[in-house]
Amino acid sequence: MSKSVESEALPQRVKRFYERISVERDAALEDLPKLYSDDVRFINPVVDERGLSTFTEYWKKALRQYKTFEFKNVEVTGSDELFSLTYSMKVKFAFGPTFESDMSTDCHAKNGKIHLCRDFFDPLGMLVQPFGPVSWLYKKLFGYLVA
Quick one: which of 11, 13, 99, 137 could link to 76 by a disulfide (CB 3.0–4.6 Å)? Predict the structure, then answer.
């Protein structure tokens, strides 16, 4: 991060990280220690882990797995201590379809760094999204059960 970016509020710096990783990939990982605490807890529908080194390894794994790994339309709201990002994520493996998901991430910070990061997305919906008839059936079924 450039010096001018480091002087920005934490939510804006995190937004810039998501935008940067979409383009620069691994090079953007240098920003993680500037944004996340050493004991960061990160949670999503399939992960509940702690520690900056583990968090960094998850990012590295994703970048190795996905030929495409992009975050688009990143919006941020909130304060330096509690903020949310909303965005669209697009991933593609070396072969097969592209998967897209609208997501949100809640960030809780103290001392200028995020100590709790929680991603919200629908993993099953994301997997069936590229397959029209299956996606339609999934939406109908869950619409019937939930809505």
Answer: 11
